[in-house]
Every structure is written in structure tokens, then in C-alpha cells.
Write a structure and sequence with these properties.
Length: 230
């Protein structure tokens, strides 16, 4: 896949699983990655799945055997092809994988900075989450981003670089436009991703009204996904 190509849904799912793996391992959880499934046998941090399918047609029994299949379990069904309802699960939300070619070389409009250990509490407070620990920052392919002015945070996001086969892709996730226009935030993130992690294709996912801003700046849907919750 050349740098100018837009990744497909399997590449987006693999990047998201790599991010989930990093967050879980940083929280000292065991993880397993196979050809068709990423999973942790212990309950993942809040808002993170216990399993992510990496290919179509993964047997339901294989997915459920890999996790703590009790109340509160969650599965990211990356190709919306699992039926977990008979096993006590309901669809928490549906979303679209997103993909675009590398961002431009132009400078971002917002005052983005890369978060370090000293500013991680500010990022977590703005994001409203405690799932990401300091160990995540040790990965050279990760950037937690914070845009702020004198009145406080404007937006937050996370970037993670992984490989789709032999080629790197950069995931854009945890995007929250707090006091900035969402379209401006997403346009900026494509620029910052190139500056921070290289001229690689970008992937991510959003749902509902949150799809509008990334689509307006060049991210295209490449497949549907579901998140199931027991």
C-alpha cells in the first residue's frame, strides 16, 4: 500500500486493536493477538472492548471463549457480522470505519501540543477518562494531543501508528472538540499526524453526527462496525 493510498476496513480494525492492546498492556492486562481476533481475558478499562475482530467470519464461540464472558463484557465487531444477541449481548452502538490519504504538510491552525507525563492529568480531565495510563506515552508511535488557550482545553485527541501489512497507518481516536469547531479539529489532526508520525494514511471510526466533521475534511467510510455489550 503506497503512502497515497487510503486503507481499508481490515487495516483500520487492526490499527484500533493495536491501540486497545497498548492501553490494556499499559494497565497490566494480558492480551492475545491472532489472525482474526485481538482479546484480553480480563475486563478492559472503561470504554475499551474485551475483544476486537480482525477479519470477517470469526466464529462467535471463538470470540466468547477468549474473554471474560460475564455481565459488562464488550466486543468490537469490526465487520458487523457477528450475532451476539442469543448470548446475552445488545448492540451498544454502530459506527463507520474511516480512512483517508496522508494529511497535508501545512501547519495546523490550533495550538496543539504533545502530552507528556506532566500534562497527562490535564488531557485526562479534558477527555473525561482515566483509561490511559502514563505507560502509554512510552510508545514511540503514540501521541496524545492537547490544544489549549488561556481559557483551557480546546480539543483533545490521540494518534497511534501501526502497520497494515508492511505499511504504516496512523489511527486518529479519542477526538473531542471541546471549544473548537469539529471540522477545524479534524482538519488539523490530519496535519499534526503527518508532522508527528510521518506521511502515512489515516484511519479511525466515528458514529452518528460525529461522522460529519471528518467526512468534510477527506475521511471516507470504508465499512461498518458494531460494539456489543453484555
Amino acid at each position: 500500500m503506497p503512502d497515497t493510498a487510503a486503507p481499508d476496513a481490515p487495516a483500520a480494525a487492526a490499527n484500533n486493536a493495536a491501540w486497545c492492546d497498548l492501553v490494556c498492556r499499559a494497565a497490566r492486562l494480558p492480551t492475545t493477538s491472532g489472525a482474526g481476533l485481538w482479546s484480553t481475558p480480563r475486563r478492559s478499562p472503561d470504554a475499551y472492548p474485551d475483544a476486537v475482530t480482525l477479519a470477517r467470519g470469526v466464529p462467535v464461540a471463538e470470540v466468547l471463549a477468549a474473554i471474560d464472558d460475564s455481565a459488562g463484557a464488550s466486543v468490537k465487531d469490526s465487520f458487523a457480522d457477528l450475532d451476539l444477541a442469543p448470548h446475552g449481548y445488545a448492540v451498544l452502538f454502530e459506527a463507520q470505519w474511516l480512512s483517508r490519504a496522508p494529511g497535508p504538510t501545512s501547519a495546523p491552525d490550533l495550538p496543539w501540543r504533545t502530552v507528556d507525563a506532566s500534562t497527562l492529568p490535564q488531557w485526562l480531565a479534558a477527555h473525561g477518562s482515566a483509561a490511559i495510563t502514563r505507560a502509554v506515552l512510552d510508545d514511540p508511535g503514540v501521541r496524545l494531543l492537547l490544544a489549549a488557550d488561556g481559557d483551557g482545553p480546546l480539543a483533545v485527541a490521540a494518534l497511534n501508528r501501526s502497520r497494515a501489512g508492511a505499511d504504516p497507518v496512523v489511527g486518529v481516536s479519542n477526538v473531542q472538540a471541546l471549544r473548537a469547531d469539529p471540522e477545524l479539529v479534524w482538519r488539523d489532526l490530519a496535519r499534526v499526524a503527518r508532522r508527528e508520525l510521518g506521511p502515512h494514511p489515516l484511519v479511525g471510526y466515528e458514529s452518528g453526527a460525529d461522522l460529519v466533521a471528518p467526512r468534510a475534511v477527506g475521511f471516507e467510510p470504508v465499512g461498518g462496525l458494531r460494539v456489543w455489550l453484555r
